[in-house]
Design a protein that fits this description.
single chain, mainly alpha, binds zinc ion
Length: 156
């Protein structure tokens, strides 16, 4: 079963696309986002830390939409490798002031076991240069094991 973050209340829930049992909010409109914030990608402790960010934002604003936009801005500011937002100045200022008021904690991202495994699996294939280097290394090893001269030939 997948552990996922509820973007509304910040709790972790079972199933990225299921409604939250605590606040009954459904998934976001972006399935990619829901999957990103699940243990397909992040460790459960990282999901909890992101949840704390959402909870901090909730403590200063009760506007669902604004809270969500503020969380997206938080991600864009602190983890722009995950996503980037491009807000109008006014929206940006509004969300920035919420983040400031909420005094949002920083999150140290830790990948889930599942993501690590997947990454190992997805390693790109060796390049031609790497293969050539490997082959020459192998043939050197072979030559070392089978010396062309036997030791007594040296004394002839
Ligand atoms: Zn919830």
């Amino acid at each position: 079963m997948t552990m996922a973050l509820c973007f509304n209340c910040g709790d972790t829930k079972f199933g990225a696309l299921c409604p939250c049992p605590k606040c009954s909010a459904g998934p976001t409109e972006d399935m990619g986002l829901d999957i990103l914030f699940s243990d397909h990608n992040f460790s459960v402790s990282t999901l909890n830390e992101f949840g704390n960010v959402i909870k901090a934002i909730s403590s200063v604003s009760d506007n669902d939409e604004l809270r969500f936009y503020s969380f997206m801005l938080y991600l864009s500011n602190n983890h722009n490798e995950l996503l980037q937002v491009n807000y109008e100045d006014e929206q940006n200022a509004l969300c920035s002031s919420i983040l400031e008021k909420a005094n949002v904690p920083l999150v140290k991202i830790e990948q889930s076991q599942q993501a690590k495994l997947k990454q190992e699996h997805d390693l790109p294939p060796a390049t031609d240069e790497e293969m050539a280097a490997l082959r020459s290394m192998m043939s050197e090893l072979k030559n070392n094991q089978q010396p062309t001269k036997s030791w007594w030939q040296f004394w002839k």
